[in-house]
Prior knowledge:
This protein has two domains: about 1-115, HUPs (Rossmann fold, 3-Layer(aba) Sandwich), CATH 3.40.50.620; about 120-220, putative n-type atp pyrophosphatase, domain 2, CATH 3.90.1490. It is of the alpha/beta class. It has a three-stranded antiparallel beta sheet, with no helix packed on it. Strands 7-9-10 form a three-stranded antiparallel beta sheet, covered by helices on one side. Strands 1-2 form a two-stranded parallel sheet. The longest helix is centred in the middle third of the chain and has 15 residues, at about 155-165. The chain has helices spanning about 30-35, 65-80, 95-105, 120-130, 145-150, 155-165; strands at about 5-10, 40-45, 85, 110, 130-140, 180-185, 190, 210, 220, 220-225. It starts with a strand and ends in a 50-residue tail after the last strand. The chain has six helices and ten strands; from the N terminus they run βαβαβαβαβααβββββ.
Amino acid sequence: MALANLFPAQRGRDELDSFMYQTVAHEGICAIAECMDLPLFRAPIRAATSLNQELEYRTTEGDEVEELFRLLAHVKAAMPEVDAVASGAILSNYQRTRVEAVAMRLGLVSLALLWQGDQRALLDEMVDSGVEAVLVKVACMGLTPRQHLGKSLAEMRATLHRLNDEFGAHVCGEGGEYETFTLDCPLYHRRGPRPMPLAATAGAEGAGPLSGAARGQEDRGGAVGDERGGGRRRGARGKPPPRPPAPPRQAGPPRAGRPRPPPPAFRPPPRPC
């Protein structure tokens, strides 16, 4: 078993204008692989264009779907025992049929275990089974970056049900209403990193990303790597915020007392593998 991920080719870019892929918070994918103790295969999305927009996809050179084909072909070459590919498709026929087309060309079985499930029931099942996922992007009426980014699905459950009743919003975000990043779930061997909020700017539709550096990971039995939650927050461009100027020193004898503890270590965000 392995994980496969496609990310924007342009360094520092978090999201693509793509019909097929969601890449928000892709900086944390390497940490997810560590939490699951699984090998990770990654490749850049160089052709972020949907040249073939028909429902039934046929091989089209230069289309972004071909990036998925090349990535999964590499996975199969490296791990011949892989015989299936699983995706989280719930409602999008556009995405499902493209995954199926790629899988068929490679002799793989396409698994869409959530396909056409009742979204209210799926959300409740995810929360009740211990899936802790936080919103990293919002893009629909009733959701705003300032109020909802960083909230867990458990915290958002009542709001998502209400938005479904009032506006017909998809409870599981299948209409692009929101995107999430999973901090913990039954498949993890240790708790994952929590994205730190960066500059979340609301547009006309109230959309905004949440991404950035990750905190140290916590094992089920204790801390792994850095201390829990240690480190300085990074700014919007990935640089530590400037320290405030130190007050002028007063002349006089040195003060007695305990030495200052060293500053907490900073764990840099995971780079693309």
